[in-house]
Description:
Elements: H1 2-6, H2 15-43, E1 50-53, E2 60-62, E3 68-71, H3 79-91, H4 100-109, H5 113-127, H6 131-137
Parallel strand pairs: 1-3
Antiparallel strand pairs: 2-3
Helix pairs in contact: 2-3, 3-4
Amino acid sequence: MLGRLLRxxxxxxxxxxRKHYELHKEAARAKVLARLRLYGERYGVAWNRVAIxxxxxxxxSCSSRGNLNFNYRLIFLPDHLFDYIIVHELCHLKxxxxxxxxxxxxxxxxxxxxxxxxxLRVLERTTRLKPEALVAHAVAPRTSxxxxxxxxxxxx
Length: 156
């Protein structure tokens, strides 16, 4: 009973939002899986399950069971931010916290991760993760499976 009272009520999803999610979910899955294979090999990690969700507040998450969850809106981010989120969640497979060892792992692929975090926060504040606002920031969903080089990283 108490659990039901404490549970957050979900905001109703409009038909248009649901359609947008369904339209882009598989493109997001394909790109996420391609990047996971690339960076998973580099880090020597394996994951259990990958889910693509319509999350309101998170770009990604990792469970202690090795399950990875990603927001479908990732495909509307610039490639360097997309890759940062993939690397971040993969590093949680080795370090389930945000301690110094975790950030050291992240820095191997994303040495300017602090600027990337700042850039993501600005995007979150200005778009509130709304698909139409993210689409306005990105000309089109990015589907390239090539990693972004460090020289292509944009500082915030």
